[in-house]
Each structure stands twice: as structure tokens, then as C-alpha cells.
Amino acid sequence: MGQFPAQSTSIHSTIEKRLGTSAIFYRRALTCRNEGYGLAAVGYFRRVVEDKTNELVDVVADSAEAMGMSEEDIAKIRVAKSQKVYEDKLKIASQAMPSTIKPDGANPLHAHFELLSVGLHTQTEEESLQIADNVHEIFDYLFDSLRAEVEDREAFVAKVKQIVGKHR
User: Fold this and answer.
1) Measured between alpha carbons, how far is 81 from 79 in angstroms, rounded to an integer?
2) Rounded distance, CA 8 to CA 52, Å?
3) What is the count of structural domains for the chain?
């Protein structure tokens, strides 16, 4: 039995590069998820998020900055990094996250905080599989897609400014 083709544990090269030493935990989370071990998958994803929380906060702050948010609003997001516990960091940053970077009003940092706050000890294997899938999707959006949007936007703005500068 099983799924054909089998679910992959490969990591997109940009995510793997950005994860650095946490890539091994990310891959283990995918392996556990694919084997049906939801509790283990959630544990590994939680470890990745713990390791990369400051970077997630930076990505959200950089996105807010790219969208032209005020320095004050950006500072409210970045202050989350001063917290010791990753859950506090996610909670503070999610509360400060401006609506302009919440797709259709959805706050991915708040969702991440909510999912990871659910106790590993109280979830069934099936519930944990769903949590692992959700955490995986949200993490990839925040850690890779949102960062790529910011980088693409910055490159585009720089190009437009260069073109306008040449024609003045």
C-alpha cells in the first residue's frame, strides 16, 4: 500500500540554504509526517520554528518596511526579538503585524503561534498530522515566499529608480 508517488522529504534549495543547520530537523519533520508520526513531526517543526523565530520576525518586519510601513510599526514587530521564549516572540510580532501584510486578513504569525501553542501531549496522532501540515505550509510561506516577495519588490523598486534616474 502507501501513496504513489511517495511523499517527498526533499527541501527546496532556497529554504534549505536559509535553514542552515536547522534543515536536518525540517527534513526529519517531513519524514515523520510522511510516515504518519504526527507527534514527532510537530516536535521537529516546533524545533525549526524555535531555531528560526528571530528570522521569521525579521521577514515580517522587512515585509512591513517594503510595504512602506512607519518606522514605529516596524519597531513594534522587531521588539519581539527581545523576548526569551519563542512563543512570546511569535505572539508579540503577530499582534504588531500590520494588516497590509496579512493575506486577505489572515495573520500567518498568529496562526503559527496558535498551532505551536497546542500541547503535544494532548493531541492525537491524526490531529498532530494536520497540525504538522499546517505548520509546514505557514512556515514555508513566511520563511520563503514572503521573503522572496520582499526581495523581488526591493529589486523591482531599485530597477525602476535606476531607470527613472537615467531619464532625468
Assistant:
1) 5
2) 22
3) 1
